[in-house]
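Progress note, project year one: complex with zinc ion.
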Amino acid sequence: MLSCVLLGWSAISSAQVPDWCRTLPRPAYKKLERVKTADPWFEVYRVRPGVFAIYEPHQSEEVISYLIVGSSKALLFDTGMGISDIKKLTSSLTQLPVSVVNSHTHNDHVGDNWQFADVYGMDTDFTRLSAKGSREDAQAEIVPGEICGDLPKNFNAALYATRPFHVTHWLHDGDMIDLGGRTIQIVATPGHTPDAISLLDEKNGLLFTGDTYYPGPIYLYRPETDLDAYESSLQKMIGLLSKDHAPKLKLLLPAHNVPVADPKDLRRVLAAFREVRAGKVKSSPRGEKKEYKFAGFSFLMK
Ligand SMILES: [Zn+2]
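Model obtained:
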């Protein structure tokens, strides 16, 4: 009887640990400088001087937002899931005013936008629609299997939604944001969504790639995804790799899984994507989607 009870308990408890969560932490984090912060929902890493990666490892998206600090202001590239309080976290990392700019406006990147007074958005209809908020996408992020470990103590699952937010500055391709001693260029890289962007910090050789590239399954199946635009955007990013034959980009900083990637990956990703579109690659089923797998990344498509 007792053994039955014990068996039952251990079966339930191991079922509660999702597979993705068992493989954490990812090896890449061992080499990064961890910054101690008070909120256990987030892990913060100083990836480069003045660049903090804000990682949310307890939710399956493993989303990464970035705080980029200049001498007069800071830019928060995405506000994460909105499950814990990223505004409170950023104010523990910098005392400078913080403006928000989003890699794109899917729910897992705009969760805490509502908290900020200064929000830059791409001038697209998709952005305007996302800014109205939604409940459905947020709720899907907390169903069984999506959470690893504990949710924050004051988190209310029933009320969890992407709250509406207000865009205070409309952005266009090529716009520059001066942070004082650091200039960030907006590089429109539509495809994953119509409002997908990358941020270029040319002086420091950094490209923040959002969801256009990260090491993992890249989502290219939603109705707002445009595959032609995605291919062109990869090509555009490759154009940033070098200038006058001198290496220009030193590091990619993606929005999921790990905050550091090799700029040379972009050439492999474009070549792989072209092979997929030419029908040369076999897919494996993943739910109702097709996954095209390559070393270090894959494409998840309809
Ligand atoms: Zn996305």
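Residues 104, 106, 192, 211 surround zinc ion (CB under 6 Å).
Residues 1-14 have pLDDT under 50 and may be disordered.
No further modelling is planned for this target in the current period.
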